[in-house]
């Protein structure tokens, strides 16, 4: 073991080889961790691991930037060297483009707390898009250049010359390999293009459909999602709430953007037979409403935006519901109470607001979205909306509110999200 490792003394060729190798590993790790972070259905299973994984992803992202910085001084020399190798030059350009794009959008997403949501929305779009395009490209690049493929190519040549005793030919003693080789020899396309075509086909089949769904969802900002969620709703809440005129008219013009359905449990379903809403704790008069009674409380309509810390937003939602302050007035908050704890009917998710925050004008216990009952997937029949804070405060399937004295940390706050969830750069 030599421990006098000195990067500056390594010869140029070896440096590039090292950077290439490390870069391959870094991209592999980023692809896996990023992929895991992207899957909404396993948020709850991951729990704390999710927050740690995100930090790890960011950390490795910085290593990727470091590799880029180590490479850049040799860019000129390298491209000169690749003069005539169009394919390799093209590959270099693609990979550099991907890494620079991922780095810039990643930095914006990392700094979400200090940047307006419009920035993170854009960054998330490019981070995702580059991944959808880049990872298949990188997989294609790696497979079509695997050493064993190259090796077999030379073996075949040797075999053609009948150099049977050659050491490498042992690899080919396998019957199946021989048959494939023979078949490929007869086939009109070369082994190389056969591999290229099959790898591309597999990638298109494997990744195409999810990519198609993603791009369709992303480019469609007209809320067709909402129609779909409403149609497939699993809640049975009767009677249906009757929208106020402003809600009926959808004064916000219809929500813009797409909700990513997040849950840490199975998506719960509710029926008006058993559903109840309770306000308890440090109150003068504890109250419980069944669905029919709950619908009799007077409601208001507001238009507001919705921002998740992972970078996406949905704009101009027309919410109809009861301002939380109004509900608090109904039960009468005692002097001892300092915080409002919010329980989801999923039995797991909670969050909390200070009393002062809870009494903000736009904090609403919402029942309708864009003139329709809030779909089950988006937290219906009743969800909280806290427009000025990141959406992890907007508890879905809200059923119980408790007035408490001590601060409570919610589901994500326990797992590393900040209790201070104010969105900067809005209002
Ligand atoms: N009960 C419950 N409420 C929740 C969550 C959750 O997982 N469970 N996720 C929160 C987060 S992080 C976000 S971004 C929004 C997502 O709302 P949506 O699923 O309606 O898009 O809900 C918030 N409220
Ligand atoms: Mo979120």
Automatic annotation (TrEMBL):
Compartments, as annotated in UniProt: Cell membrane
Chief subcellular location: membrane
Membrane topology type: Multi-pass membrane protein
An example molecular function term from Gene Ontology annotations: electron transfer activity
UniProtKB keywords: Cell membrane, Membrane, Transmembrane, Transmembrane helix
GO process annotations (BP): respiratory electron transport chain
GO cellular component labels: plasma membrane
SUPFAM superfamilies assigned: Oxidoreductase molybdopterin-binding domain, Transmembrane di-heme cytochromes
Parts of the chain that traverse the membrane: 22-41, 56-76, 92-112, 124-143, 194-215
Stretches assigned to the Oxidoreductase molybdopterin-binding domain: 266-412
Cytochrome b561 bacterial/Ni-hydrogenase domain residues: 16-141
Protein name: Oxidoreductase
């Amino acid at each position: 073991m030599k421990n006098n490792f000195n990067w500056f003394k390594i010869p140029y060729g070896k440096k590039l080889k090292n950077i290439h190798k490390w870069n391959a590993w870094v991209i592999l790790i980023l692809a896996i961790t990023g992929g895991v972070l992207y899957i909404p259905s396993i948020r709850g299973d991951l729990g704390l691991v999710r927050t740690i994984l995100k930090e790890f992803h960011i950390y490795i992202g910085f290593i990727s930037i470091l590799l880029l910085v180590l490479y850049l001084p040799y860019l000129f020399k390298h491209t000169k060297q690749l003069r005539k190798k169009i394919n390799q030059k093209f590959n270099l350009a693609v990979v550099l483009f991907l890494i620079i794009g991922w780095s810039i959008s990643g930095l914006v997403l990392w700094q979400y707390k200090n940047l307006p949501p419009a920035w993170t929305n854009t960054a998330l779009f490019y981070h995702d898009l580059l991944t959808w395009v880049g990872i298949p490209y990188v997989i294609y690049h790696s497979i079509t250049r695997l050493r064993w493929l190259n090796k077999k190519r030379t073996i075949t040549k040797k075999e053609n010359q009948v150099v049977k005793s050659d050491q490498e030919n042992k690899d080919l003693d396998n019957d199946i390999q021989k048959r494939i080789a023979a078949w490929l020899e007869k086939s009109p396309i070369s082994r190389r293009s056969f591999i290229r075509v099959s790898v591309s086909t597999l990638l298109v089949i494997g990744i195409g459909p999810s990519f198609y769904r993603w791009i369709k969802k992303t480019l469609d900002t007209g809320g067709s999602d909402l129609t779909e969620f409403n149609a497939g709703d699993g809640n049975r809440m009767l009677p249906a709430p009757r929208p106020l005129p402003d809600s009926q008219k959808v004064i916000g013009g219809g929500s813009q953007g797409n909700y990513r359905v997040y849950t840490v449990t199975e998506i719960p379903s509710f029926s008006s037979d058993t559903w109840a809403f309770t306000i308890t704790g440090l109150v003068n008069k504890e109250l419980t409403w069944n669905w029919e009674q709950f619908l009799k409380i007077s409601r208001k309509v507001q238009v507001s935006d919705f921002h998740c810390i992972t970078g996406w937003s949905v704009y101009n939602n027309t919410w109809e519901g009861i301002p939380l302050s109004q509900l608090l007035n109904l039960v009468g908050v005692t002097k001892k109470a300092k915080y409002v704890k919010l329980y989801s009917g999923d039995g797991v998710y909670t969050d909390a607001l200070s009393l002062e925050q809870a009494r903000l004008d736009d904090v609403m216990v919402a029942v309708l979205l864009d003139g329709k009952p809030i779909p089950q997937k988006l937290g219906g029949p009743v969800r909280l909306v806290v427009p000025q804070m990141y959406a992890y405060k907007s508890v879905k399937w809200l059923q119980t509110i408790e007035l408490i004295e001590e601060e409570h940390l919610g589901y994500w706050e326990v797992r590393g999200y900040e209790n201070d969830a104010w969105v900067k750069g809005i209002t």
